[in-house]
Design the sequence.
């Protein structure tokens, strides 16, 4: 359905509590739903749900059920970046002095950008990285270049940390965005020059004792605009930066409150997709004009219950539905914006303490990360599965690894 909208009102975690907080406001959030949830979706979509592929225990698949997705995939294992080759081999791509906190990879140019720093394990056994250096590696020419260094500094009394945050390539691989807690840089991979776009410290007191900064940079399709989340991890607020003029525009969306917004990313045209979760879940599209969210395109209700959208591609949303209480099952769902149709791709019994923690897309494969710790740096108990969206085949592709 299409509705109008009044636009006038329009650090890494270091313990489980922080992780749960990040889940609530981020795209990786997975919430508890009732057993009747698929029926609710059926009423909304007015489509018959596709029969799910029922999997009683993914661990029963074992290594003999390992499949080859025949495409290159990079992942983190024990603080380094590894690649899964098209032939199914695993190759270590970095040997970080400490560890890699995050990375970005451009396949066309085969450029790997990493943020690295000292690897720390706290008294609770959780591992994290104190990020301090951005390194660019040419995997073809085996060339390694330090792009930026920023010593990690923590100010516990001020509940603030100075650190590098994230990296991301433009679609053509010609530019690399680098963010910190207070700045944005753009590195040109063709001119080999780095430029600071802005210096604007973020301090948000809505969550105590956490790292605040600019996260999840995403270039617009034409590369002229950059979408950023501002605040804690997935961001309490969202901005658009005009990379030609340097103009920064605040978007009228906010997460961490009820209802909570999260900007999912760019659409193929100059627009963005926004998910909102409160007592119900719906999605909206907005045109971006002169760096600002202008006219609303459409709004669709997905569920009358809270729901987090984990991945988006070609106007199809992918979600995890978990029920710890009654049915003790978790499901992978998809919602087609054009068909207004929801499908249950497959479901399984929850294998406590293992659960699906992340969904990402790689070509026609839906990658599902399963772990038991929620610690993105401790990959000893993480397994990655691939679900083929065409054949509906599922299998294990990586053990002891985590997609970025």
Sequence:
């Amino acid at each position: 359905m299409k509705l109008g909208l009044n636009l006038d009102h329009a650090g890494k975690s270091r313990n489980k509590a922080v992780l749960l907080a990040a889940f609530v406001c981020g795209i990786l959030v997975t919430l508890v739903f009732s057993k009747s949830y698929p029926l609710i979706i059926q009423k909304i979509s007015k489509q018959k749900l596709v029969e799910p592929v029922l999997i009683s225990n993914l661990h029963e698949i074992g290594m003999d059920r390992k499949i080859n997705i025949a495409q290159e995939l990079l992942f983190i294992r024990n603080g380094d970046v590894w690649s899964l080759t098209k032939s199914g081999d695993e190759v270590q791509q970095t040997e970080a002095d400490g560890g890699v906190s995050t990375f970005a990879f451009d396949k066309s140019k085969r450029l790997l950008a990493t943020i690295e720093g000292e690897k720390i394990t706290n008294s609770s056994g959780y591992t994290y990285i104190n990020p301090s250096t951005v390194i660019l590696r040419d995997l073809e020419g085996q060339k390694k270049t330090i792009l930026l260094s920023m010593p990690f500094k923590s100010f516990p009394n001020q509940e603030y940390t100075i650190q590098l945050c994230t990296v991301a390539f433009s679609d053509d691989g010609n530019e690399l965005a680098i963010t910190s807690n207070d700045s944005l840089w753009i590195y040109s991979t063709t001119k080999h020059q780095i430029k600071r776009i802005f210096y604007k410290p973020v301090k948000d007191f809505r969550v105590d004792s956490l790292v605040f900064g600019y996260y999840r940079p995403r270039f617009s399709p034409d590369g002229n605009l950059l979408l950023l989340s501002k605040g804690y991890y997935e961001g309490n607020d969202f901005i658009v930066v005009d990379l030609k003029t340097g103009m920064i525009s605040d978007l009228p969306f906010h997460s961490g409150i009820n209802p909570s917004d999260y900007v999912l990313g760019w659409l193929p045209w100059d627009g963005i997709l926004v998910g909102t979760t409160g007592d119900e879940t719906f999605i909206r599209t907005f045109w971006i004009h002169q760096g600002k969210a202008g006219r609303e395109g459409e709004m669709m209700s997905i569920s009358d219950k809270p729901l987090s959208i984990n991945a988006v591609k070609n106007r199809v949303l992918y979600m995890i539905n978990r029920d710890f209480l009654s049915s003790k099952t978790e499901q992978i769902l998809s919602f087609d914006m054009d068909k207004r149709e929801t499908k249950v791709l497959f479901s399984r019994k929850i294998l406590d303490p293992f659960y699906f923690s992340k969904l990402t897309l790689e070509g026609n494969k839906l990658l599902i990360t399963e772990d038991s710790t929620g610690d993105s740096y401790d990959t000893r108990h993480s397994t990655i599965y691939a679900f083929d969206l065409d054949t509906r085949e599922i299998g294990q592709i990586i053990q002891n690894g985590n997609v970025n």
In short: The first helix runs from residue 16 to 25.
